[in-house]
Specification:
globular, about 210 residues, seven-stranded antiparallel sheet, Jelly Rolls, three-stranded antiparallel sheet, single chain, alpha+beta
Length: about 210
């Protein structure tokens, strides 16, 4: 399987609408405020954790997702996010007992002129980019200043010198399935500077059996 792939119109819009209603009925989103990052003290996201809650529509979506993979997978985290400000550079790799971080899935519930930027840099030791920078040199040909200014201006300026772009995903469209390996560092784009309203999407963290 490709390390990064995007499948347009993977989910029926009516299914996503029903799933959204079901998710909203299961509980209340919790506010996530940035504690130490570039938006310190500001509301970044509202999150509704659904890992142990499989509504009929979520179960249908998970069954469809399983058909994409050529091996059995485990759904370690299911999260309905309302993203108010962009996540800056991070990965979603985590150490896990008995399984191994595999793919990060993003499922837009609404169209949004915003995209995820995935970098070539990766680590299976830490999801924190500041630690990666401590352990790795700057790259010879980093992300161009022009691309950075247009898409990633909210990130720490010095981060650019350690990064090269692997893939700039298309703008989020309802029905898409966006997937990439969890050990790749990535970032939201600077959608908040273009008047884009908060983004509604489901994030699913997928694991596989640990390889011996």
């Amino acid at each position: 399987m490709d390390d990064v792939f995007v499948i347009d119109d993977f989910f029926d819009h009516a299914l996503l609408d029903r799933a959204k209603s079901e998710m909203m009925s299961t509980g209340k989103h919790e506010d996530f405020f940035d504690k130490v990052g570039v938006f310190k003290g500001k509301l970044i996201s509202q999150q509704l954790k659904l890992t142990d809650i499989h509504t009929p529509c979520i179960s249908e979506m998970l069954a469809k997702i399983r058909s994409v993979f050529d091996r059995p997978v485990m759904f370690k985290e299911i999260n309905y996010q309302i993203l108010h400000l962009p996540w800056d550079i991070h990965s979603d790799w985590f150490e896990s007992d008995g399984s191994e971080s595999y793919y990060n899935l993003l499922i837009p519930l609404e169209d949004a002129d915003s995209r995820t930027i995935i970098f070539d840099q990766r680590s299976n030791h830490t999801n924190h980019f500041y630690i990666y920078k401590q352990q790795n040199p700057k790259v010879e040909h980093p992300v161009s200043q022009d691309f950075w200014d247009k898409n990633l201006s909210m990130c720490w300026p010095e981060d650019r010198l350690y990064l090269t772009v692997k893939h700039a995903c298309p703008y989020q469209r309802k029905g898409q399935l966006v997937a990439f390996k969890r050990d790749y560092y990535h970032s939201s784009d600077s959608f908040h500077l273009r008047g884009v309203k908060p983004k509604h999407f489901i994030q699913i963290l997928v694991d596989k059996e640990r390889e011996l």
